[in-house]
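User: Thanks for the earlier help. One more: Cytosolic Fe-S cluster assembly factor NBP35. Can you show the sequence and predicted structure together?

Assistant: Of course, both are below.
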Amino acid sequence: MENGEIPENANEHCPGPQSESAGKSDSCQGCPNQEACATAPKGPDPDLVAIAERMATVKHKILILSGKGGVGKSTFSAQLSFALAAMDFQVGLLDIDICGPSIPKMLNLEGQDIHQSNLGWSPVYVESNLGVMSIGFMLPDPNEAVIWRGPRKNGLIKQFLKDVYWGEIDFLVVDAPPGTSDEHISIVQFLQATGIDGAIVVTTPQEVSLIDVRKEVNFCKKVGVPVLGVVENMSGLCQALSDFRFMRATETGEQQDVTEKVIECMREKAPEMLDLIACCEVFDRSSGGAAKMCMEMAVPFLGKVPLDPQLCKAAEEGRSCFADQKCGGSASALKIIIEKLLAANRWNQ
């Protein structure tokens, strides 16, 4: 338990050996370290001083959270980082989703390694002003499962914060795992002294997602992290009409592809239709969606991003959706959200 670190064999939800409840709380029952923690001298964690020194060169720290997995949180984190870097900000993207690190894939950095210097761990750079750190760079096999208890996850998050040398940067975007677990408590605790600008919460429109987002917002309020806003992702499917496949149901219940005939018919009789974008709702939004929830919980609503197959493709290929015109609907929606975020917090001044 050197430097007050949580031992790897500690119970889940360990309060930490420096906590006043160390060795005494319910979560300590049966832990092999219970007696040592209960009798050990208490005091401030010296690693927090090291973290504060590292974070002194970071102007703004933003947490990207979600109540559920699969709502596009990592996609939003990646595209937010791409957008800020394109605006000539110095950006760092920290992936603390220890068991599901998607960021290396979404920034086309798979297979990259972490390098060390006399200044600490060096981020992997996409561009000269966009650096990335993730456990994904440390796994010998990308398909290998990370089967860690809470204390070991928290130890790696602490190591990322105190050992990674970002240099002078404008934004540190932290992509957190879904939910409100140990990792969230740890990142807030470790960064509390240095100040967290706030959290952006990503959700989809249906109530089954919003139920958990309400918990995420309440978590932020309890730990004193400002909610910068909520983004409703996958808010309806938007796609160029010419990119759709058209099917006809046969008498046997099978589907017959008639796309070529339909496109040819439109080209001959109504060519202007080929320039249209078709939109439809995918998820049930009868409860009012994220906008209504934000009004009820008195937190900012940043906007909606449609479910765009081209954005999904950009994420799969690890590229910015702003680099070309392919992601028309989603890129423009993301741009409005990011500009709104910068203006509301006066970060573009």
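User: Great, one quick takeaway?

Assistant: The longest helix spans residues 207-223.
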